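Form 7-S
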Amino acid sequence: MSFKKKCEKEGYPATIMPVPRNLSSSCGTCVKFTGEAQTAQNWNSDEVEQLVKILETGSFQVIWHS
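Output:
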């Protein structure tokens, strides 16, 4: 929840959703936001495990991982 609020405070639209199965087999939530991943990396949130980019093919590209 706090990462979603941080995104919105910084001007990035964000929604909380389940983590896609092809990213993790465990149950969990993620924040989908539209914006620059490089900016989010600089936020230093302990809650962020990784940042991924959704590709046009529907697959994911890891941008950053803790």
